[in-house]
Amino acid sequence: MARKLRLEVEGGLYHLIARGNDRQDIFHSPEDRLKFLTLLIKEKARSPFFLYAYCLMTNHIHLLLERQSETVGNIMQRVLGGYSRYYNRRYKRVGHVFQGRHRSILCQSDQYLAELVRYIHLNPSQGTNGVVA
Q1: What's the predicted TM-score (pTM) here?
Q2: What is the residue range of 120's domain?
Q3: Mean pLDDT by 10 residues, the chain (133 residues)
Q4: Is residue 102 part of a domain?
């Protein structure tokens, strides 16, 4: 069965979620978090988009970004793929790091957007939160 097509809108605001395979941790150290953020910044320079908020939990991530010309799928493929290669090399393992495809939710109302920003910023203190313009 073919994958369901994702709705992609240039200028759309997206809540993106990626979870560790089998809900396992994907960040074990500050260096892991720094690597993920470095990959995200590198991708931002390559494919301009606006990153409004993020939260890196131990076993999953939340991003709020505004898509520009590049598709969200391509952005996430490069960031998550790069992190997976780093993670598998660092921890001498093979296989999937993330559980399935990332989840992509188009923010279609101001109310959802406000709740999302609040949720990301109030996520438990074990995560790394931030706002980037």
Answers
A1: 0.86
A2: 13-130
A3: 72 94 95 97 94 93 94 96 98 95 90 86 61 43
A4: yes
